[in-house]
Amino acid sequence: MKRVYKYNDKTRKMYEVKQMRPRATYHMVMPDMPDYISPVTRQMVSGRTQRREDLKRAGCREIDPSEKSDFMKGPAPHEDFDFTRDDINEVEARLGHRIGEYR
């Protein structure tokens, strides 16, 4: 590691500045998303690739963080859905666990 010096105006001398060693860099790996039912197409979506395809097929896009506050002011998203208990049971059977377990 190279040495770095700094000049002090008051003492008119150079002194060595201690440097921290650079941290090792690693690749970040994002875990896959849990499966869910698309609220628009009503199809099972599992993974990021299917999510992108589902958004494209439905003509939707992800919400921008700057829009989030506007979105949260509106009605709760679940008010528009009319899932029956049978729909929920079918999804839970496919997933192998209850839907509320992720929360």
Briefly characterize the structure.
With 103 residues, this protein is of the alpha+beta class.
Structure keywords:
two-stranded antiparallel sheet, two-stranded antiparallel ribbon, 3 helices, elongated
Mean pLDDT: 79
How many separate helices? 3
User: What structural class should be given to the helix and strand makeup?
Assistant: alpha+beta
How much strand content do the residues show? Answer: 5-15%
Outline type: elongated
H/E topology pattern: EEEEHHH
Q: What kind of assembly state do the chains in view correspond to?
A: single chain
Distance from N terminus to C terminus (CA atoms, Å) equals 48 Å
Task: State the helical fraction.
Answer: 25-40%
Note down, in words, how this protein is organized.
With 103 residues, the protein is of the alpha+beta class. The chain has a domain at 29-61 and 84-93. Helices cover 27% and strands 14% of the residues. It has three helices and four strands. It has helices at residues 48-58, 68-73, 85-95; strands at residues 4-8, 13-17, 36-37, 44-45. The strands form two sheets. Strands 1-2 form a two-stranded antiparallel sheet. A two-stranded antiparallel sheet has the order 3-4. A hairpin with a 6-residue loop joins strand 3 (36-37) and strand 4. The longest helix has 11 residues, at 48-58. The relative contact order is 0.10. The mean pLDDT is 79.
How do the strands and helices of this protein lay out in sequence?
Elements: E1 4-8, E2 13-17, E3 36-37, E4 44-45, H1 48-58, H2 68-73, H3 85-95
Antiparallel strand pairs: 1-2, 3-4
